[in-house]
Amino acid sequence: MTRPLTIEDLYRFEIPGDPALSPDGERVAYTLTTQDADNDRVIRSIWEVRGGGGPARRLTHGPADTAPRWSPDGSRLAFLRGGQLHLLSADGGEAVALTTSARCPAGAGTPVWSPDGARIAFAAPEAYRADSAPVVIDALGWKADGVGLIGSLRTQLFVVEVESGEVVQVTEGDRHVGTPSWSPDGTRLAYPAQTGPDAAALGPSAAHVVGVGEQASEGRRVGPADGLAGPVTWFPDGSALLVVGRTSFGVGHSELLRQPLDGSAPVSLSAALDRNVMGGGPGYPGALPQFHGDAIVFCARDRGATRLYRVDAAGISASPLPAGTGISGCSVVTKAGRAAVVVSDASRFAEIVLLDLDAWTSGGPGLPSAGPRPAWLTDHMARSLPEVTLHPVTEREFTLADGTVVHAMITRAADTPPGGPLLVDVHGGPHNAWAPHSDPVHLYHQELASRGWTILTPNVRASDGYGEAFYTAALGAWGETDEQDVLQPVAALVAEGLVDPARIALTGYSYGGYLTCWLSARSDLFAAVVPGGVLVDLKSMAGTSEEGHLIAGHEIGDPARMAELSPLSHADAVRAPTLILHGGADDTCPVGQAEQWFHALRTRDVPARLVVYPGSSHLFLLDGRPSHREDYSRRLVAWVTTHTNR
């Protein structure tokens, strides 16, 4: 017998991620995330599965093992355990610490092996600061979500000798640097680093190169100082860098750029695609681009889902993954001609899939490619929750009065009769997107669908995957531009008789929390409202958020508009019962934003409740305490069902 997913099932989740393919293409090491209910924590361990088949096996037991990376000869795995680098033989056994708190007091970063396997480079904070130590702040960028106050601490590059464990600092300076990439001859490291005057803040960045044998230096900038550089890697002949970034700083798509080492202008290799290249990050799945023969394989987002693409002399072609799937992690080894990908679909949250890149034949620019069926290597969903089925997610397009087409997902049980309640959920970002596949984060979707609800998740203007014009459509006009992207699709569902107009609830997180608060002040359509990780006052946000400077200067632009576009300025119009859910250690949308909104509503006699999750960062819905994630979903379900019952 099967049953629908419930909120408490999160304690049984096994979610694979961050796959690393061995040099021979036969073994995939990956991080498996599970939940420890007894200690209310997330457990991460390293697992392995073979491309030829067979069950996955555990290599380490955690509780904080991440970022597995194979040595060039495939004999060892480097990984992070509790923030320090460890080595594990490919044959198994006990892991051995490579770095220690004595040599890396602030910990290490994601390991990057040198071509000869003798050294490992990583980016990490340059010093350790005790929690009780005073924090000196004299520049923007003094905090980071999930870390807290960082003051003048900066992230630098380090290299550790694998045999001796000796650690050498490679870069220095008043700026953060990103994950490095070794040159093919092993003599240089390329990396992204900020270039602006307040270089620790979110601002312009560029690709840099530094010689490994040099004394610690600031390196040499090779990209434009006013651009944006993300992950970098080298062309195989060492002649140029491959950069995920932009040629000018601002809001817009990241592109695949060929950056000459002489500092001349970069060339976009992905402009014809008009899609955002995804280098990877929490909540923004993607991967470092890699070479496959004369082609480059990379990730980009299309209609909400991250997909694999290839660019070569024939143009850009899409991956052979089936419709309804999306990538949440990827590892490409060009020598073996294979790609290890973490894929989600309608019935599985995430599983490891192996793709044969040599069988990928181009279908022409922008067209699907021919290729073999993907080989699914793991079955963690079936193993951990064999009796559970997920409610289907269907895609829908709504054409608005101004001609804009809004792509949305609808989740509802197959036997749900028309005329029931509706939950509208707005994603964050604002440049993120809902994907048309299963989702292990928003468990309340499945719970409510089991109770006869319809869930509408629209990709409003500013969402990723619909071209750069759509991506930038809400700049300078948050709320004003995209409010109809919610209201008109809801009106269409009401007109069709699919939902009850008196039983409509609204929720959203981060930017979705902003738009939820905005819409509750602009419309009386919603019987219950649940904003999470909220943003309500753009002016105070600008001075207190880790991203405030970027939002104020580039998302809003005009300082005179900040009050007008702040939901707090319109709180007098709110009537709907409001539940505010917020992380107590959120440095992206500081908890003061939630406190201001709660105060504004309660002093106006609006039914309101504020729930703060102590110690939880902005991303706690992804990887925070299981009890906090469970509580978030349970409270949301209880609030919307209570306030929409007639």
TrEMBL record:
Protein name, UniProt field: S9 family peptidase
Family annotation (Gene3D superfamilies): alpha/beta hydrolase (3.40.50.1820), TolB, C-terminal domain (2.120.10.30)
InterPro entries: 6-blade_b-propeller_TolB-like, AB_hydrolase_fold, Peptidase_S9_cat, WD40
SUPFAM superfamilies assigned to the protein according to its UniProt record, in alphabetical order: alpha/beta-Hydrolases, DPP6 N-terminal domain-like
Peptidase S9 prolyl oligopeptidase catalytic domain mapped to chain residues: 446-645
Keyword Phosphoprotein: no
Keyword Protease found: yes
Keywords: Hydrolase, Protease, Serine protease
Pfam families attached to this UniProt entry: PD40 (PF07676), Peptidase_S9 (PF00326)
Organism of origin: Streptomyces pulveraceus
Xref: PANTHER family: DIPEPTIDYL PEPTIDASE FAMILY MEMBER 6, SERINE PEPTIDASE S9 FAMILY MEMBER
